[in-house]
Amino acid sequence: MCTYATHKVELDGAAKGASGWFTLTDGAVYVDHPQHAAREHTLNIDFTNPADGPSARAAVELTEEAALALVEAIQKALASAPPGLAARGGEPAERG
Amino acid sequence: MDDAMHAGTTTISGHGGAEVEAYLARPVGGAPRGGVVVIHHLPGYDAASKEIVRTFAAHGHAAICPNLFSREGAGVGPDDQAAAARAKGGVPDEQLVGDVAAAAAHLNSLDHANGKVGVIGFCSGGRQSFLAACSLDLDAAVDCYGAFVVEAPPADAPLKVAPLLSRAPDLSCPLLGLFGAEDRFPAPDEVAALDAELTRLGKEHEFHSYPGAGHAFFAVDRPSYRPEAAVDGWKKILAFYGRHLSA
Q: Which Pfam families match (chain B) (predicted)?
């Protein structure tokens, strides 16, 4: 299929795309046909800054297994660091 | 067979006067010919879409594929343009119709044009092909697995599009529909509902659903490619345009 749920998320950080580093403001997460991965469907993430134009984008296309492993790795990495170390204001973010 | 062609990027004045990039291919020979507007799929104005344009030129048609995401900026990669357009909910229907009208007019302005123009679209472009054929005076339309013609998209889908079934009485030309029996968007019951409505309205149409094929079975660069369905589908498309786009 060509369309599926798209989850948008506000992001704060930086990413490196085809034209170099840019400040990250937005993300979109969705399951759809990939551009490049040799799969019928993948979990796709666009890291973007729309204010800097469409080229301010870093894209990943992951299998479901890889996406879930990534989520787990992110949670483990955060859990192993002192709370708040990577938080915006130095205070721990609420963790769901 | 005289299959020499000119092919390359051009610019047309699209909906609202916007400068729209387009890929044009046409035979070198001087025989009168019909034109085909190719509507690319949601992943954008990619190499596979340009190959489809050249295939029509190799079979004697002039063909053009407007980059529907041109407005996302010049010098931007087609995949980045597609992601940006997707994030905005896709291309508005009115803009699509304007861009297809401009592409059709461009084809008719070329030397050796016989005045007949068909449209073909894949995936989201399948729905847009039907939309164009219900909005413009065209000579033939092909819908390759376009979803959301009969059913509305799921509430959480990114595309802000409405069903088009109520537009069916305005269908201006014969319609060829090519679908995968394993597709879920459009699912077989959605295809059957469109078929029934066109029959009820007395609209000339020809639908084929291929067993063992799902969505995007024409896409040679994707795992969804189904050679048997695609090869037969291409034969049907070329025969259909041969009947309806000749002078």
A: DLH (PF01738)
pLDDT, mean over chain B: 95
Judged by CB atoms closer than 8 Å, whether chains meet at B80 and A40 is answered as no
| Domain coverage including residue B130 | 5-244
Q: Which residue of A has its CA nearest to B77?
A: A55
Structural domains counted in chain B = 1
Q: Closest Cα partner for B39 from B167, B166, B138?
A: B138
Among the partner-chain residues B77, B216, B223, the one whose CB lies closest to the CB of A55 is B77
Q: Measured between alpha carbons, how far is B27 from B160 in angstroms, rounded to an integer? A: 37
Give me the pLDDT at residue A2, please.
54
Residues of chain B positioned with their CB less than 8 A from the CB of A26: 87
Helix (H, G, I), strand (E, B) or coil at A27: strand
Q: Looking at residue A4, what is its pLDDT?
A: 57
Q: Give strand pairing partners of B24.
A: B8, B64
d(CA B115, CA B83): 35
pLDDT of residue B212: 96
